[in-house]
Structure formats: structure tokens, C-alpha cells
Cell wall hydrolase
Amino acid sequence: MKSRHPAWRLILVAAAVAAVSGCGMFRRHSELECMERAMYFESNRSSRDGMVAVGSVVMNRVASRQYPNTVCGVVSQKNQFAAGVMTRRMDRRSAPLIREAATSVLRGERHPMIGNAQFFHAAGYRAGYDNMHYVLTAGGNAFYERRRPEHVTQSVPRPAIEGITRPRS
């Protein structure tokens, strides 16, 4: 017997059910989950300072007109954060530390040395650009602002510094 419903209708119905139920690839992340994912995949969970610095960069981008105005919009931008940041599985053993740092950043904490930085890369990477003004190295990353070359006063990553941020009690 020939079906009255083409296969594409069934696919659309299944997609709608998945989207409404919040499962699979249609699942929407909360702002907290998106911040946790950025911190987890970008800071290597190596230090609270590194996680808060990554979160501070995300929030600087949210505040900028050049990027989406939500945490999830910023974190899920193509080629901006770690590949698979929104889809890869996270090891939940580090969840309490990540949750605390992400919650704190969403409540207004910023790394005190991050300034207006909207960019970072692995601390060991050396880029050949002349517009990178480095403000901080923490958690395995070097954080920087893009400036006109004549306004760059710190053209190489600073020595790593840790232990500046503290969990709020």
C-alpha cells in the first residue's frame, strides 16, 4: 500500500518532536551551559583564572556590536571556539569547578587583567601579526586585544599568572 505521507513529512514531524522535547541535535543550551562549554573546551580546566578569563572574553564579545548578543550566540559562532564546543561530550568530573566559575562570570565577575580583550590562543602559539596587544596569560591561553600596530605596547604574551581570582563564598 502506498503511503499518503511522504517521507519528508515524517522527518519534519520527528524533528519537531525532538525540538519540543529538547533532545538530540535540536536541544537548546542555556546561557550557563554555553559558558560552561566555552570554559571546559578552551581553558583545559587547568585553573579558575583561565576559566574566568575565557568567560570574560565571551562576555566582552557579547557586549560588542561585532558579535552576537548572547553567550550561546558567541560560543557557537563558527571557527571562533574549539571545534565541537557545542556538541562534544564533557567529562562531568570537573563540573562543580566549571559551574562555579561560569555562574560567577554570568553574575558579573571578570578577570581583573582581561580589560577589553576579545581574543585568545594557546599560550605556546606564536602569531605573526602586529596588532596583538597581550594582556594576560592564564590557564594555558594568552589573551589579547586587537589594536592598531602603533598602539601595541605588549607584543608578546606575558608570563603566566594564576591565583588572582577566587571563588565567591
About this structure: Confidence is low (pLDDT under 50) at residues 16-26. The CA atoms of residues 6 and 12 lie 10 Å apart. The two ends are 67 Å apart (CA to CA). Helices lie at 7-21, 31-42, 48-63, 71-75, 95-106.
